[in-house]
Amino acid sequence: MGKPAFKRVLLKLSGESLMGPEGYGINAEVVKQISLQIKEVQTMGVEVAIVIGAGNIYRGLGGEAAGIERATGDYMGMLATVINAMALQNFLEKMGAPTRVLSAIEIHQLVEPYIRRRATRHLEKGRVVIFAAGTGNPFFTTDTAAALRAAEIKAEVILKGTKVDGVYDSDPMKNAGAKRYEKLTYLDVLNQQLKVMDSTAISLCMDNHLPIIVFDLFAQGNIKRVISGEAIGTRVHS
Length: 238
What we know:
Layout: E1 8-13, H1 28-42, E2 47-52, H2 60-65, H3 70-94, E3 99-103, E4 112-113, H4 116-124, E5 128-132, H5 142-152, E6 157-162, E7 167-168, E8 180-181, E9 183-185, H6 186-191, H7 199-207, E10 212-216, H8 222-227, E11 234-237
Parallel strand pairs: 1-2, 1-6, 2-5, 3-4, 3-5, 6-10, 9-11
Antiparallel strand pairs: 7-8, 10-11
Helix pairs in contact: 1-3, 5-7
């Protein structure tokens, strides 16, 4: 295999990506398969950072609908991302991939606090870095956290792993005639209100010239294919 197309990447994983058929929580086999893919690209010499969500455990917006104040619900969701990050770290380290979890909310007994220079140093040493607790602030999604952390560590690209093979003009699960885009601009995403990432995240990527590649996380070997420069999924750029 040739030289990887990217040296440093940020992988955005939703909390839902860790669920199995149960539709809730953490499925060990699913996390193991994702970890195998991450380990594969890490051994290629690629520096991998990860931002993980918490939709498999708790969503702040869902809490608001149940009567929990939005800010409180968001903080609860941030704590849930720490649980997901620790689960992913567990499987990666069992496979021999050194991993560090850095949290925007300090929990010294469990994970390291987020410090940008420390995160960069971990990456330079070949460790997989998992960013937990979003930005540490309510009202910001983990999509925005991914864009922010990618800009801070000078990642070359954001890889967004999903359940479908790219960005469509409508839900391909509901519409068999949905059209998949190969390339989009940031303004296309904003103007058409395509569900790639939230508008704050897209704007941050646009301001910092950070390309986004949306791809099917569950096709085995797809992370390696993206890293190798294969034209899969949908690319969002200037």
